[in-house]
Write a structure and sequence with these properties.
Layout lengths: L3 E3 L19 E3 L7 H4 L3 H13 L28 E2 L21 H23 L10 H26 L19 H16 L18 H14 L3 H13 L8 H4 L10 E5 L4 E2 L2 E2 L19 E2 L1 H4 L28 H6 E6 L9 H4 E5 L17 E5 H13 L5 H12 L11 H7 L2 H12 L6 H8 L13 H5 L5 H6 L13
Antiparallel strand pairs: 1-2, 3-7, 4-10, 5-6, 7-9, 8-9
Length: 509
């Protein structure tokens, strides 16, 4: 078993599940395996247990390795959708969604399920046992904060589960005797939103964390997560309100888009919640490369090929779509003539196969991912780049989407989009009536902005699912709307828990 060294105040999640050592770190194989009678003795031990909850975020299936927005093979959302294609050493697991090979026994289905429920079980321990410690072992404010963060993470894990598997077992205890049947998605969502809202409306979490505590949840992160959960479940008024709570806390966009996705951006005012990463362990470089960056010198970048569909989503610098632009196809390959985010997110763009009459040039543009490739770090091989789970630009666009779906003020919606475009390093033209008309409505303008602003940050797959655009979920093999709506419950879970039933789309009743 891999060993964990955790001090939550300086929580840094590393690729090998090992954190930089310090004299007051707790060092044990798995803090969550400790018995309730021998472990809950002081704040340090309670925070170490909480560190185990945060540590699940780095596991395969969430924000480390195979399948998520942090993996170079899956940067536009599970390595599928209409955004990026892998060109190296694909495994059956990596290809599950891309090739329409998802099944109850598929590794991807099991890995994501296991990671989320491991996190939930650890959070449930915190929520049950910390309040029982009493004032002799932990101050009330510290206990409230630790429990509040555990409830934030539990809501996060359950939102991930319901967004993929829909109806899932709702467990609120560390252990259970007997089988647990599925709860409806609506019931799970109601539970986690009510639970988290009580936390964020209390004094349990600070309004904002300090730079030294980055990686921990605060009120900004909690309101943003509530906004995301509401949005994913078409609760437009609640989503808009939660986003406004974040806005009222005084967050701002980072002026320099390129700097944001570098080591220097880790403490940016735009980042609401991030998974922390250090490429060094006890002063030694982690030889598994950076958490997101795969470069090994200033000329190397992730080998994932970006699809022409995504590349051509970006307007020209005058705010014109490629169907309306006055630039030639060759001129559009120059980042100086495009939305600046085109150049920040991609590198090595070129036009290929121009002689093939059956392929037009919009389809055959090729390029590679440049986001998160920190070329400012020259003195060492690897960079210490965090992975951003929630940032302020996403919150602004979530509020815009919620308002667009609920007949909100169009001027406010445009203003939210324009705020994202007004970033000092972007300065794209504001939304116009002509753009709205060409897009087919203001909601489609919001969708466009999400795609170009948040490319390779792991949102696209979930965006397409909630928009019902199922035919875009797989780059190669569309399996149909029914099976695209929901993942199957892992077969091993069905075998072990006789109270579980498979989703109807996958052969269940």
């Amino acid at each position: 078993m891999k060993r964990i060294k955790i001090q939550l105040v300086t929580l840094i999640i590393g690729l090998g599940f090992i954190l930089p050592s310090c004299s007051d770190f707790l060092d044990q194989e798995n803090p969550s395996s400790a018995s309730s009678g021998s472990y809950w003795n002081n704040k340090q031990e309670a925070e170490a247990m909480l560190g185990g909850c945060y540590g699940v975020l780095q596991q395969q299936g969430l924000y480390f390795n195979y399948y998520n927005g942090a993996d170079p093979r899956a940067l536009d959302g599970f390595g599928t959708t209409d955004g990026s294609s892998g060109w190296w050493f694909w495994s059956p697991a990596d290809n599950a969604l891309s090739w329409g090979q998802l099944s109850p026994s598929q590794e991807l289905v099991e890995v994501v399920w296991d990671a989320c429920y491991k996190g939930i079980a650890r959070c449930n321990e915190i929520i049950l046992y910390v309040p029982q410690m009493g004032p002799d072992k932990i101050e009330q404010a510290d206990a409230d904060r630790i429990v509040g963060e555990a409830k934030f993470l539990r809501a996060f894990f359950y939102n991930y589960l319901t967004s993929l598997y829909r109806d899932v077992p709702l467990s609120t205890e560390p252990t259970s005797t007997g089988y647990i049947s599925k709860s409806s998605k609506a019931d799970v969502v109601q539970f986690i939103t009510e639970d988290l809202k009580k936390v964020v409306e209390s004094d349990a979490l600070p309004d904002k964390i300090s730079a030294e505590e980055r990686g921990r949840a605060d009120k900004g992160a909690a309101w943003a997560l509530l906004c995301r959960i509401y949005l994913y479940n078409q609760k437009w008024a609640e989503a808009a309100s939660a986003a406004q709570k974040v806005i009222d806390l005084g967050y701002n966009l980072e002026d320099n888009y390129l700097k944001l996705f570098s080591e220097a951006g880790n403490n940016s005012q735009e980042v609401l919640f991030a998974v922390r990463f250090s490429a060094t362990i006890d002063g030694t470089e982690n030889k598994m490369r950076g958490f997101l960056s795969t470069r090994n010198n200033e000329n190397y970048y992730t080998p994932i090929t970006v699809t022409g569909d995504l590349l051509n989503e970006y307007y020209d610098k005058n705010g014109k779509t490629l169907s309306k632009t006055s630039f030639t196809s060759e001129e559009l390959l120059d980042p100086a003539n495009r939305d600046p985010r085109w150049g920040y997110n991609f590198i090595g763009i070129e036009e290929t196969w121009k002689s093939d009459d059956w392929i037009n040039w919009y389809q055959v543009l090729s390029g590679h991912i440049n986001k998160y490739q920190d070329y400012t770090v020259t003195e060492k091989f690897y960079d210490d780049q965090d992975y951003y789970v929630i940032r302020y630009a996403d919150v602004l666009l979530m509020r815009a989407e919620a308002l667009a779906n609920s007949s909100g003020s169009q001027s406010e919606i445009e203003g939210l989009i324009n705020q994202v475009r007004d970033r000092a390093s972007v300065r794209m033209p504001h939304v116009t009536a002509a753009e709205i008309s060409e897009a087919g409505g203001i909601l489609n303008v919001v969708k466009h902005e999400r795609r170009v602003e948040l490319a390779f940050e792991g949102h696209r797959y979930f965006d397409l699912k909630r928009w019902g655009e199922y035919n875009k979920l797989s780059e190669y093999a569309y399996v149909g709307e029914a099976k695209s709506q929901v993942w199957p419950i892992p077969q091993k879970e069905l075998d072990n828990n006789k109270a579980l039933t498979q989703a109807p789309e996958w052969g269940g009743e």
